[in-house]
Amino acid sequence: MSFLLNKTELLNSDWENEMEGNKQGFAFVMNTDPSNAKEAITWIYQASVAGNVRAQYQLALCWHQGRGLHQNLQEAARWYLRAAEGGYVRAMYNTSLCYSSGQVRVQAHRLARKWMKKAAERGHSKAQFEHGLGLFSEGEMMKAVVYLELATRAGETAAARVKNVIVQQLSATSHDRAMHLADNWRALPSTR
C-alpha cells in the first residue's frame, strides 16, 4: 500500500522509512498485527494530520473499534468527517451514520442525508440503498427506484425487495424513466 506524497514529504530524506511506517500502520488496521501497535497508530495519525484521507478513515476506524486506542465515538466521527470532506466514499457513508445516530453531536438528520447522498452519488451500494429508502420516505418514488435499482445491481438484495414494492405504485412511464436513469447513471469521482 502506498501514499501519495506531497512536496514536503518528497524533500524529506527519510521518506522511504516513512512509507514503511505507513504500511505498518495500515497493516495494523487490516488485522495483520505489526510488532508495535503504538507505533502503527503513530504512523496512521501522522499521515492523517498530513491530510491523507485513507489514513484519516483508518484512524477513524481505530477510534470507532477501539483498535490500538480507547474507543471514542466522537473522535471516530471527527476523523470520518475529515476523510469524507477529502472525498473518501466509505467515510462519507460512515459520517452519515454518525450524524443519524448522534455520535457527532445531537442527531443531525439533514447532515446525515447530505453525506448519505454524497456517498450514494459516488457509488457506495449501501448508501444507494439507504438514500433510496430516504427518497421513498420523502415521497420521491421515481428517484427512490433509481437508487434502489443501482443498489440492487451492486448486490444489495434487500434493495430489490423494496424497489419491487415501490415499482407497483409507479406508472409504466415512470418505471421506464427510472430504469433509463439507472442504466445511464455514472458515479461522481471520489478518492474511494
Query: Could you tell me the mean pLDDT?
Result: 85
Oligomer: single chain
Cα-atom radius of gyration: 20 Å
State the CATH class of the largest domain: Mainly Alpha
Uncertain runs are 1-22
Q: How many individual domains?
A: 2
| Largest sheet descriptor | none
Structural class: mainly alpha
- Overall geometry: elongated
The name of the CATH architecture of the largest domain is Alpha Horseshoe
Number of strands: 0
Strand % is under 5%
| Number of helices in the DSSP assignment | 11
Pattern of helices and strands? HHHHHHHHHHH
> What is the assigned CATH homologous superfamily of the largest domain?
Tetratricopeptide repeat domain
Could you please describe the fold and organization of this structure?
- It is a single chain.
- The chain has 192 residues and is mainly alpha-helical.
- It folds into 2 domains: 1-109, Tetratricopeptide repeat domain (Serine Threonine Protein Phosphatase 5, Tetratricopeptide repeat); 123-186, no CATH class.
- The protein contains 11 helices and no strands.
- α2 (15-29) crosses α3 (37-49) and α7 (109-121) packs across α8.
Throw out a few tags for this protein.
192 residues, Serine Threonine Protein Phosphatase 5, Tetratricopeptide repeat, 11 helices, mainly alpha, disordered N terminus, single chain
Describe the secondary structure blueprint for this structure.
Layout: H1 7-11, H2 15-29, H3 37-49, H4 53-65, H5 73-85, H6 89-101, H7 109-121, H8 125-137, H9 141-153, H10 157-167, H11 172-183
